[in-house]
């Protein structure tokens, strides 16, 4: 008889979190100008703002921290990380960076110029910002099914091959420096890309002579879905699947704060020496010397161990299935969530949850604020505020989806915490018809406004 899964670890250290009253939270969020990024962590009970850098490290990772070699050049910890990355991905040339966007900054400085087109599957917001900052144009080629939150598709992160080929065919090769494939696709809801699709995208890239890079922040979770949902991979190990995924590409950008299981760090890993040489010019300028690039030796060591732990099936099963546990609870309560549930987060569908709040009044943000006020749970808006203004017209961009993301940190919360979140959402859902108005912006920066925007209640 088959036994159920359970976390393949036990807990050695715990950290106290504080419960507050509704009155306290109403005051705190008003003082924070209704921007959840401006709250103190002590004002939050369950923090689902992000799964980035918020995970718990293992005893093995802490042990490797102690062994960290802090030499400026040629540190042992760098070698450990480089060898681990090469063993897992097959990419021999490693550039450590302080986090994922540091990797974007370095690689795009070397490769992206004004007017370039960068096709991909719903680029993450920092990726998009780094392309647009250089006056390049991110071209979204995701399958249409990804925009229908009620439609079941096992691989909603997939690229529409017709859309991609159209871009590749209709533009000169020198205008397309690379294609970027985000695994899993965060903006689509943590949705995976199938191995078949990766193979086909890679085929198109080869046909048109364009390199393929992965935005690999959640590559291990993507591999878990391939194992679970793509029949040919059922009996393969996660490490075998990961290796095949990366075999189809030319390199990767990594925010190690996710599937690296560390609190800070990132890297670029490349197959091609010439591209590596172009990129290290910028890593030395922006990040640090090529054998540490913004990371302490001990952090590189912990990351090397984390990459191995994150690519083990038992860990991934408990991680992804906890996210799905919360998703199932919410579906049982009829709370509208994006389906299928992705790898790292639940996405509440604010268009179906609070259609009574006008879109111009940021309905997803209004829902995220309510979740905090009622339960002390912090999520994040992925809707009109995050979509920013069009860089040319400066008009608000209204994305197809208005979501609130509840990202689950790795190895941090228990299923009881998930039950609590579900109960809070149920209460809000039951009174949703009373919500009629949202928020207006009183301050915003020119780019990446969601981090610092200030709002007032209408
Ligand atoms: N790519 C993806 C797919 C991401 O999700 C992120 C970060 C980045 C790149 C940038 O990496 O934060 O290390 O600089 N996502 C975080 C999140 C912020 O909450 O989803 P970073």
What would you note in describing this structure?
It is a single chain. The protein is an alpha/beta fold. The chain has 2 domains: 22-51 and 313-457, Aspartate Aminotransferase, domain 1 (Alpha-Beta Complex); 59-310, Type I PLP-dependent aspartate aminotransferase-like (Major domain) (Aspartate Aminotransferase, domain 2, 3-Layer(aba) Sandwich), CATH 3.40.640.10. It is built from 16 helices and 14 strands. The protein has a 5-stranded mixed β-sheet, with helices on both faces. β3, α5 (125-133) and β4 (137-140) form a beta-alpha-beta unit. α3 (76-89) packs parallel to α11, α4 runs parallel beside α5 (125-133) and α8 crosses α9. It is globular and about 60 Å long. The chain starts with 21 loop residues before the first helix and ends with a strand. The model has no long low-confidence stretch (mean pLDDT 96). Ligand F0G is lined by residues 50, 52, 99-101, 124, 126-127, 182, 186, 215, 217, 255, 257, 266. Residues 50, 52, 99-101, 124, 126-127, 182, 186, 215, 217, 255, 257, 266 line the site of ligand F0G.
Please supply descriptive tags for the structure shown above.
458 residues, alpha/beta, Aspartate Aminotransferase, domain 1, Aspartate Aminotransferase, domain 2, 5-stranded mixed beta sheet, 3-stranded antiparallel beta sheet, 16 helices, globular, binds ligand F0G
